[in-house]
Amino acid sequence: MDKQPRLLSSKLFQKHRQVEVVLSRSVLYWKEIEKSRKRSSCTSRESETAHSHAVQVCEIVAVHKSEEDDQGDTKRGRLKKAKQQSQLYPHTFTVSYVRRTRQHQWRCSDVSFHCASQALCQQWIQVINEQLSLLTNRPKRLLVYINPYGGKQQGKRIYEQKVAPLFRRACISADVIVTECANHARDHLKTEANLDKYDGVVCVGGDGMFSEIVHGLVTRTQTDHGVDQSRADAELVPCSLRIGIIPAGSTDCICFGTVGTNDPVTSALHIIVGDSQPMDVCSVHHGDVFLRYSVSLLGYGFYGDVLTDSERKRWLGPARYDLSGVKTFLSHNYYEGTVSYLPTADGLGNPRDKVQCRSGCHICQHKHSSKDKQWEMSEEEEKSDKDRWSTIHGKFIAINAASMSCACPRSPKGLSPSAHLADGTTDLILVRKCSRLDFFRHLLRHTNKDDQFDHSFVEVHRVRTFRFQPFQKQLVSREDPSEPPKKKGFSPMCSGQTTCNYSKAHSSWSCDGEILKHAAIQVSGYDVNMVKIEIPDKHHLTRSNHKEKLAVSSNISQLLAGNSYSCYSGTTL
Ligand SMILES: Nc1ncnc2c1ncn2[C@@H]1O[C@H](COP(=O)(O)OP(=O)(O)OP(=O)(O)O)[C@@H](O)[C@H]1O
Ligand SMILES: CCCCCCCCCCCCC/C=C/[C@@H](O)[C@H](CO)NC(=O)CCCCC
Ligand SMILES: [Ca+2]
User: Fold this and answer.
1) Does the CB atom of residue 207 touch ligand 2 within 6 A?
2) Ligand minimally distant from the alpha carbon of residue 315
3) In the chain, fewer beta carbons within 10 Å around the N or the C end?
4) What's this model's pTM, rounded to 2 decimal places?
5) Does 216 reside within a domain?
6) Residues catalogued as catalytic
7) DAGKc domain location, by residue (predicted)?
8) Which residue out of 146, 147, 410 has the highest number of ligand 1 atoms within 8 Å of its CB and is therefore the one to mutate?
9) Domain limits at 47?
């Protein structure tokens, strides 16, 4: 039992057993009275022995008076003792709470308590509700966009059957818009939506739909603050609304990479309890032309070609990626070009350090807490940045920039297993020209425990910003890579003759599942906290890996000390 003062404590009945129920500010706890002297009890975040249970208040979904009194009496009436008890304790309230199941999945469970008087029952409901109302990070009004055509075209059904009932139970009101065409949600958010009415936006769909919402919200925020997003060096203003994702797409890597599973109920519960996780957003420019924002994968070569081919097979649903994947693999194309990048300073880990980004990740927290100090660059440091740029010219099968792990059911550890969600960097993976068999070995390692970077033809760098210039015979760039690309260097690519002659030598960039129309890009503006999604990785900080966390971060260990329930309080909530 936690050491906090009791707000309420009563002897009630639960499943015909008398229990002592205690509410403190952070925990709802109940234990069987008769047997408690014989057996020892156990507490944990949401723990359960044969006779004692504890649920964190922040994981209570709702409490309500139960209508089941009469029905319960009929069932219980079979047993004489039970009947007597139900007569003595006729008033029931039910607490709905989060229960963790296998593989990061959450479910909503109910526990009912029977009280002797209506007044006591009301008091319990009122006091629990008072505690819930103190949890200010919980959303009350949401704007929901459903893509009815994403993934297996189940978005509407998933929302209506699995999510809406939970939102109703948690007294969340939701305005629902089923999109009618691509970019409907983006344009509605950009110009029409009255965002003051809402605590968050929910996206029912896949990564492409999430990207629409990000574009709508980020653009709206920049417009409202007079920021010109066509400038690559513009300092973007973070969005104040959080975005929740209900997975209903084909890859769903943003949901999978943050929650650890693609499960609509789990996501709905994370949204209800008000969890949040900041995410890096980078901007992609072609010269002075803003192309798109990206949060997951920017992929040129293999993934760009898979995506281009798969768009023609949308009718196949998620299976289109398998078919196009095999076809692209067999084509075994490679592309020549120049990649320039600015590596991160020490202290942000490296892509092969085997540190996985979790809720309360010390690297992302370090980035947050020290943002105004070490990370704010002085003029000299900015100048010395110029010298730190690296340039690689080569023939590549794939150039991938993973701003997060990009874990998904196809690749549970992702393209870059140690990439961080909110550290302000991306992992730049260069796969050079190699044999088909070697490339197959590399791909296969995305699906097992082997290190996909442990090949002579693969290199990976953690970078703050990068540029790519595809090879063009008469346009081999001799520019200083640290200078912004000059417009004239790009323009011939997009005009007539040059494009036609060399277009076959180019791939396309896949940007979070959307094809970019330019091959020459510069990627910058990685910043934490641009967008907050409503589903963090809390589950990863369960007791089983506490030791590891305590060993690496004294900050987290302080947060853990003294309260056995606050094992996830290191997160940015
Ligand atoms: N009503 C609609 N009709 C057609 N397309 C739509 C509609 N609403 C949204 N879209 C577009 O559908 C595209 C794909 O959507 P979504 O991301 O939900 O599914 P997916 O591509 O199957 O999944 P993933 O992106 O995870 O691979 C998005 O780019 C979005 O712009
Ligand atoms: C021999 C077996 C080899 C198997 C290899 C599996 C490797 C899978 C890695 C998957 C990486 C997914 C990265 C996510 C990218 C998303 O931004 C994007 C939008 O949803 N999805 C795709 O581009 C769709 C990408 C689809 C890739 C197949
Ligand atoms: Ca990152």
Assistant:
1) yes
2) 1
3) N
4) 0.83
5) yes
6) 207
7) 137-288
8) 147
9) 6-133
